[in-house]
Amino acid sequence: MTTEQCMLFLKFVAAVAAVAVLSLGFGGCMSSPRDDLYRPHTLTSPTQQADPAAPDELWAVLPPLNESGTTAVDPLSVGDAIVASIQQVQGLSALSMNRTLQSMAALDLGPTPSLSPADIRMLAEAMGVDAVVVPSITAYNPYDPPVFGLTLALQRRDTRLADDSFDPRRLVRAPVDPSLVQPTTFATRPTSVVSAHLDAQNHAVLAAVRSYAVGRHDPTDALAWRKYTASMPLFTEFATQYTVRRLLERETPPSTVASVENP
Prior knowledge:
Number of strands: 9
Distance between the termini: 74 Å
Number of helices: 8
Order of helices and strands: HEHEEHEEHHEEEEHHH
Structural class: alpha/beta
Strand content: 15-25%
Radius of gyration: 26 Å
């Protein structure tokens, strides 16, 4: 074999090898988990569950009260996370935390702990919202494993029946005895209150975190779904969504609310 033939043979081998490498590379990219998309768990409001054509409700979130005993938590950041969780619910919308703070300042209302039910009602009417969420942070540990506790009280504009044995959803678009129904107004006390204490050492909590992470993380990341327990802001995101879910369950049977698993 001449020198020229040897050079041509080596070039041919090199070309074949390059094609093989490129084929493996493209094949690997096509089958990469990074390209796989999964639908995340979502929430639907009770109103939209009962009537998919119903307009979205507008909620407001008060600045959270810090009862955790630590100054490491930023209540306004938690409030923003609660607003974001409500915004992700189908059939609900929420005013930004800044908008609520501006409205409180315009009405010369003090901090959240000093607000009376009448103050909350006045604030809700001024902002034109259907409900106000009053949050309290009951536990906060940003270190591994994280702990987050949250209480949400919902005070809403609704038609309340004098007889609790009646289900208001049965009376939608139906004639009723006016004596059974009080005028539609803003409630003077919370219609629903829920609390959650989420400790990342608890395996049931970890299972809920893993369920929540589906469709919300890159499966090729080293931490995968555990990034939600490695980052306190991400754990807060999970915790607020979880607690909002429980709040919606108080408004409607749990079987009609689609979301993460309960610990």
